[in-house]
Amino acid sequence: MKDVAYIALGSNLGQREVFLAQARVAIAALPGTRVLGQTVVEETAPIGPIAQGPFLNQMIAIETELSPAELLTELHRIEAEAGRARRLRWGPRTLDLDIVLFEHQSVQDEGLTVPHPELSKRDFWLTELAALRSARVD
């Protein structure tokens, strides 16, 4: 079943712009997936208790045949290819890819919750999501 998913991209280590660009290309290349739109890249302050540099953030809308679990597996693979090491929660990272929302599916599993549980706490996600949803033409 095809569905529209909204993916948040973030980076605060190394060549941040390059990591986001590579992620967009990698996500667009996923099987049964096409990019419907993307927001502008913006810089935001880090969230959480760890002192670190600012993030570059962006959100993309994709149409995909992948299930939420399959998409998460692919996003983790893309993060790993960008040098992401999952050592410290809320820590700095080369690439962070979060499934924010699916239009027609929700998930409540140990490893994945959709809509993302932090969605209502991140104003920049809400703004990006609204922009993508209002501009989307299928």
Annotate the secondary structure layout.
Blueprint: E1 3-11, H1 16-28, E2 33-38, E3 42-44, E4 55-64, H2 68-81, E5 96-102, E6 107-108, E7 113-114, H3 123-135
Q: In words, what does this structure look like?
A:
By secondary structure, this protein is of the alpha+beta class. The chain contains 3 helices and 7 strands; from the N terminus they run βαβββαβββα. The chain has helices at residues 16-28, 68-81, 123-135, and strands at residues 3-11, 33-38, 42-44, 55-64, 96-102, 107-108, 113-114. The strands form 2 sheets. Strands 1, 2, 3, 4 and 5 form a 5-stranded antiparallel sheet that branches. The chain has a two-stranded antiparallel sheet with strand order 6-7. A hairpin with a 4-residue loop joins β6 and β7 (113-114). The chain is globular. The mean pLDDT is 90.
What are the main properties of this structure?
3 helices; two-stranded antiparallel ribbon; five-stranded antiparallel sheet; alpha+beta; 29% helix
| SS elements, strand count | 7
Discrete helix count: 3
Overall mean pLDDT score? 90
Helix and strand sequence: EHEEEHEEEH
Short description:
With 138 residues, the chain is α+β, with helices and mostly antiparallel strands. The chain is 29% helix and 28% strand.
